[in-house]
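[stage:ingest] chain + small molecule (pyridoxal-5'-phosphate)
[stage:ingest] validated
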Amino acid sequence: MINVTKAYLPDIDQYYQLIKRAWDKSWLTNNGELESRLKEFLGVKHLYFCSNGTIALQIAIKALGIKGEVITTPFSYVATTNALLWEGCTPVFVDIDPDTFCIDPDKIEASINSETTAILATHVYGYPCNIEKIELIARKYKLKLIYDGAHAFGSQFSGRSLLSFGNITTCSFHATKLFHTAEGGCIITNNDETAEQIRLIRQFGHHYDEYHRPGINGKNSELHAAMGLCILDDLDKILEDRKRATQSYSSLLEGTQLTRKLVGLTSFEYNYAYYPVLFESEEQLLNAVQRLNNDKIYPRRYFYPSLNTLPFINYTRCSVSEDIASRVLCLPLFYGIDESDINRICRHLKMSL
Ligand SMILES: Cc1ncc(COP(=O)(O)O)c(C=O)c1O
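[stage:predict] done
[stage:export] tokens:
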């Protein structure tokens, strides 16, 4: 069986050593080494390790005092929209750019009104949103800006980690991500005041005996951090191997309609987080999925459905996102995926076209 992803597992003895260290100290939670290692690795000022990427988004929204209408993307995982709804905000969906699949910056201004307080955009598959244009708009209308960087760990833009932009960027460290802590996530900001709010909210809203505001428990544990510390040591090897698999897919699928080339993307280094292919129609996609499933290969329709079509959302049309969501498929991509399996997957895909 080949799934869309497979969690990377580090050397178990190395993991055991770190768990043993926590054991010996009887220190299982609260602010260990992972945060400082990640700050250094990513080159960011403040980073808070959280229980998952969804609570990271919710804390980010709270920390920036975001209320009312928030401009967001319909092409993301449901957690992006859920976090807004859970925090009492109204998501306002702006359609995506058909090339990058990220929010289309040229369509944002038309949706801004007096109720708009923020923009929440996703770096889809680890590719950057149009950061320059979005930041100009945020500044012009005095909107807060959060990037959902759940896919962006390891991507570099303009010589910086893609996780270092906006008022806040969040990330997910779920087991399916290329860097993970089994469950986990983080919140990143370069602003000291925002950082202080994040720190308080993540820890029940108090600092020792000083109670400042209602908070939540969004922390994570040393047991999860140990996984992250091991994987961080292996990251170069992981990125290299994902690049190998990506290049194999691209060369085997060359000449078909399935591959996409992102033009005009400069100053960018990719993390090889996903391998999405775009079919001509949903019917063609479903045929391919059936064919792969028959051979016990399970790609994922991701993202699907377009979030503006969720049953608990007031529908507004986003034709590009709805179209892409109906035709896009993420192929299996993980550390160590066999060349023979990539060959087999591509053979099925070609035969289903
Ligand atoms: C774009 C995006 N945002 C948010 C999340 C939520 O992260 P988590 O699963 O860690 O809560 C995910 C998870 O897959 C995601 O892909």
